[in-house]
Write a structure and sequence with these properties.
Blueprint lengths: L41 H7 L5 H12 L5 H23 L1 H5 L3 H4 L1 H4 L5 H31 L3 H18 L1 H29 L12 H14 L18 H28 L12 H6 L4 H31 L10 H19 L4 H29 L4 H8 L8 H17 L8 H5 L7 H36 L1
Helix pairs in contact: 1-9, 1-11, 2-10, 2-11, 3-10, 3-11, 7-8, 7-13, 7-14, 7-15, 8-13, 8-14, 9-11, 9-13, 10-15, 13-14, 15-17, 15-19, 17-19
Length: about 475
């Protein structure tokens, strides 16, 4: 997409440019060419800084403390899950500059304008409220451990800072991630070295049935949780920006930060005699307890900063997804106001999650993978099948009459059937793991394959019928 060739295309109003301390106007509309700026390298810290936090570390901790994996098994699951999520992140990020719209507007191609309410609505809730609450908890616990202030007050401080960054918008988020990156990288690299030195990779362990596949699902769920935001942070780039550079810096930044800190989390789980202490009321404090006091204090500050770095993206993209639902909101600050609302709701959800954080977090990660994998199947299959010119695609993105019910139906069936059969978590145990626990959790894998099969079959049959109808009509006209 290089021009706005259709009067129906919704163009973001106002001027924003490269101003940092200014509220970004609009919501999920097309970004005009004169507003385009940025370079691919900034995606490295944009997707590294948000994962330099305890929520990432805790994924690795869960592999050892909850699922009973050994260090090397946990490390392998972290690398595989993070690599898969990083690859898809890179691919999705490349389409932002071409079309100049957020990821959940591009999603309309595979789901239709109103059918897209399914994934956009899910992302608005899981990003703007769910992920926001998860990371707010880890940041609040870190601040509480450091300052000994009441947990609720610590949570309020973290939430207010996050909302301010997300309220102002795109430019401030990129700048915040850039300057947070060196601070987070230095502190976490030093802390990681200390933790890895104390690890016991050969420590005895008792893996629960299917523990590796459950961990793989959780690590994939963590990395792939960023996928529905991918184009949100590249849509301001110029259309001729290198796709290779975009894919590399976004995918590599996501993979590196997730894999490294999840491996550190697994190492921390082996560094204590009873790794179950990490599943107590303050897992953040249990982790920093392995560090020298001065380094522990700096790490707690970094964890709080990392939570802000993550949630600035979560609440921003949650608000973008909400505006992508298609409801008319005439206010120029509609995205910014949506961010405020999501932040307020997320605060109360985080407050309720200050207890029993471990179990709730594990379930949340798996649920993320359950719906994003089928969504990815539709997005990628549609991209493979679509043969339309960019200007035709441009029109479809904002055409309220455009329908593609193959997408929402395939996703709903794929996710529903895979959850029913293969989900493996404390809130629900699927039919297969109930009778054969060793299969672990294959929900996202089955959900992806099943959704892809349904979508491809539906579209191929529908396209063949449409071509046959055109041929018949042409023949009748000739007669």
């Amino acid at each position: 997409m290089t021009t706005v060739s259709d009067a129906d295309v919704e163009v973001r109003e106002g001027t924003y440019g490269e101003k940092v301390i200014a509220v970004e106007p609009g919501g999920a509309e097309f970004i005009p060419l004169q507003e385009r700026h940025g370079r691919p390298l900034q995606l490295f810290w944009t997707w590294t800084s948000p994962n330099m936090e305890f929520a990432t570390i805790f994924v690795g901790v869960l592999a050892v403390a909850a699922f009973g994996l050994g260090f090397w098994e946990a490390a392998l699951a972290a690398v595989l899950g993070s690599a898969l999520g990083g690859i898809t992140q890179g691919i999705l990020s490349t389409r932002g500059p071409q079309f100049g719209v957020p990821q959940m507007v591009l999603s309309r191609l595979g789901f239709g304008y109103w059918g897209n309410i399914l994934p956009a609505g899910l992302n608005a809730v899981t990003a703007g409220i769910g992920w926001f609450a998860v990371n707010s908890v880890s940041g609040a616990l870190a601040l509480n451990t450091l300052t000994h202030l009441p947990q609720v007050l610590c949570l309020l401080i973290i939430v207010v800072v996050q909302i301010v960054v997300a309220f102002l918008g795109y430019n401030l988020i990129h700048v915040f991630e850039r300057y947070a990156f060196p601070v987070l990288a230095i502190i976490f690299l030093i802390a990681s070295g200390v933790i890895l030195a104390k690890a016991h990779p050969a420590a005895s362990h008792a893996t629960i049935p299917g523990g590796f596949l459950i961990t793989f699902g959780a690590t994939f769920g963590y990395a792939v949780g960023w996928n529905p935001y991918a184009a949100d942070y590249t849509r301001y780039f110029k259309p001729d920006t290198s796709k290779v550079a975009i894919a590399w810096w976004s995918g590599f930044g996501l993979f590196l930060s997730c894999a490294l800190l999840e491996i550190v989390g697994a190492a921390a789980g082996t560094a204590v005699k009873d790794s179950g202490v990490f599943l107590g009321s303050n897992p953040t404090g249990a982790f920093t307890g392995l560090l020298p006091s001065v380094l522990a204090d700096f790490t707690l500050l970094a964890i709080a900063l990392g939570a802000v770095a993550a949630n600035a993206l979560n609440i921003y993209s949650g608000a973008i997804s909400f505006t992508a639902l298609g409801f008319k909101l005439p206010l120029a600050l509609r995205r910014a106001l949506a961010a405020l609302v999501f932040g307020a709701i997320g605060f109360f959800l985080a407050w309720s999650g200050l207890s029993d954080a471990g179990t709730k977090y594990d379930n949340f990660l798996l649920i993320i993978a359950y719906w994003i994998a089928p969504w990815l199947a539709v997005v990628f299959c549609d991209q493979i099948l679509r043969r339309q010119a960019p200007d035709q695609i441009e029109h479809l993105l904002f055409d309220r009459k455009y329908a593609n019910w193959a997408g929402p139906v395939a996703m709903a069936v794929g996710a529903g059937v895979s959850i029913w059969l293969f989900a493996n978590q404390t809130e629900y145990l699927g039919v297969v793991p109930r009778h054969a626990a060793a299969v672990g959790d294959l929900t996202f894998e089955v959900g992806f394959v099943l959704t892809a099969a349904i979508y491809l079959s539906w579209r191929l049959i529908a396209d063949r019928a449409a071509r046959r109808a055109l041929t018949t009509r042409a023949h009748a006209d000739q007669v």
